[in-house]
Amino acid sequence: MKQILIIWNILLLSHMATFSQTPYNIVINVPKNPTTEMAFNWFTTLNTTNEQVQIVIGATTNPNSFTTPFKTANATTNQNVHKAVVADLSPNTTYSFRVGKTNLWSTIATFTTAPAPENKVPFSFIYVTDAHAEENLQPQTNAANIINPNASFWMHCGDVGRDESSAETVMLERWKKFFEFQPNQIQKKPLAPVMGNHDVIHNNFFHKHFNVQNESFDTTGSTYSFIYGDAQFFAINTQRCHRREASLDSVYFNNLKTWMETEIMAHPNIKWRIVYYHIPTYTSKISGVHNSNIADLFDELNIDLALQGHTHVHDVMGPIKDRNVVQEAIKYVTSTTATVNSNGKSGGIFNVQQGTMYFTNGAFGLKWMPLSATATAATNTDHITGKWAANVKMGNGIVGFAFSNISVSSDNITITTYKANNGVSEFLDEIKIVKECIPSLTTPSTTIGTQTWNIAQDKSGNITIQNGITLTVTANITALDCSVITIQNGGQLVVNGGTLDGFTVVAQSGSACTIQNNGKILLKNFDDFDIQLGATLNLISGEVSPK
Predict the structure, then answer these.
(1) Are 342 and 226 in a shared domain?
(2) Helix intervals (H) in 362-507
(3) Inter-residue contact 524 to 498 (CB < 8 Å)
């Protein structure tokens, strides 16, 4: 009997050892080249070697498909933490993978590589921040996946975990919960994370749990970049530079500046520059710019969109340049109820041609700031010169897990934000970001005589049609810049079978605009066609419409 018991204990220990080496905390991270690579990170309870990732083409759950893998990559191992990058993949292709070793493989999951960047295919991603490893994240990630099942990746702007304990074993268990709570997020779609102030406990927790291809000047941090579609993304480690003093960690900041400049110069034909990080540059929770050095850098590099975290409020701020909101850059912001946003604003189109849009969507957890902590700041008009706080739209602290579906095309970026409770999504707000030149009626214009534009061509500069003058358009004429055609009292514009593409048209009182023979005036927005009181629009055959 004693011998049988010993044998049973040996078998039990052997089974426990096998189970404890099964991979967990599995995550796929967005790599440097998401069209041809994928990065993996996983844990085993025991220290083990010879771990690898296996890849097959297509979506499958059949382990027999891995008998002859399409790709295999050996992991680099530090005790029980394993990292691997699989290269030479094909763009816009679905693969299945598993990690581990013989007889100790993980469950099978899938991912899809990015389309070739030169194709500039529209895409979308889900942006969250400040999850703090909440114990009921799974229903909320399910809700986000239902809203956008075709998201290309997830982005997390810091504070994945908590640091309420100084015991490393306690913190490791808390981080483990983050991965257990949301496999739909991190085992089926790549994750693009950055480090938050609660993620630096025990120095290298972020580096242990994620496999981002970090720049060498930020040791074990989260400074990296990638290109997806028509957008260039930059992840910044604000734990290295997040105070108002521009001198804080000047070595990191100088390296950051040089690196970003080099990356941007290497990809001059990318439409959008998107930066994401944890500690905000601008926030309605304080007066003034929070990260002065980062704000100046974004101004210099013409960053279009900055996605932030940390504050646990919903901030829509900008476009900002030189501490001011860019004039004439905001349209269609409407009023809503204070129960949605504490200053009663919603929607809007924001033109980032001359400034940066700063956005924080709240928190992917229950730690939203109460109304008492945010309402005063939201209506404060003394943040910086220009009173940009009037354009802040800030959440009032209603409990909810905030997530944003961000759609990116070469034309615009649309950010739709929801709150989720118990897996049910509730619409919060939607904004659109465009990058277009801003028409200026004060720019000097050229006065023309009566003439016909009958040859397809590009035009630049403002034009004025004075009393007694007629401009006839019979060909396709395209504006190279934000050209304005002003028809003064007694002047006339005739679009006769031709097309005015991209011009702003202002018909003043007493003027006439005639469209005939299927002529077209194509505008960037409806309000680029200004028919003032007393002007005449003769729409005989043709159209005035947005591009």
Answers:
(1) yes
(2) 371-378
(3) no
Q: Kindly report the pTM of this predicted structure.
A: 0.84
Domain's final residue, options 88, 113, 138: 113
Indicate the number of domains in the chain.
Answer: 3
Question: Is pLDDT of 14 > 80?
Answer: no
**Residue 228: inside a domain:** yes
Single residue among 434, 454, 476 that ends a domain in this structure = 434
Name residue 459's beta-bridge partners. Answer: 479
Work out whether strand 499-501 and strand 519-523 pair parallel, antiparallel, or are unpaired.
parallel
CA gap 524, 544 in Å, rounded: 11
Residue 252's Cα: distance from chain center in Å? 24
Hey, CA dihedral for 503, 508, 512, 515, is it positive or negative? positive
Q: What angle do CA 222, 173, 190 make, to 5 degrees?
A: 40
Q: Is the pLDDT of residue 198 over 70?
A: yes
| Residue 122 forms part of a structural domain | yes
- Expressed in percent and rounded to 5, the helix, strand and coil fractions of the chain are 20, 35, 45
Tens of pLDDT, residues 43-101: 998 888 899 999 999 999 999 999 999 999 999 999 899 999 999 999 999 999 999 99
Extended beta strands in 259-397, E state: 272-276, 305-307, 314-321, 324-325, 330-331, 334-335, 345-346, 349-351, 356-361
The answer to the question of residue 439 being in a domain is: no
Sign of CA dihedral 203, 191, 89, 80: positive
Taking Cα atoms as reference points, which of 455, 532, 450 lies closest to residue 492? 450
Is 283 within the bounds of a domain?
yes
Q: What's the CA angle centered on 341, arms 335 and 343, to 5 degrees?
A: 65
Write down the pLDDT at residue 242.
62
Question: Model confidence at 306, in pLDDT bands (50, 70, 90)?
Answer: very high
Same-domain check for residues 124 and 158: yes
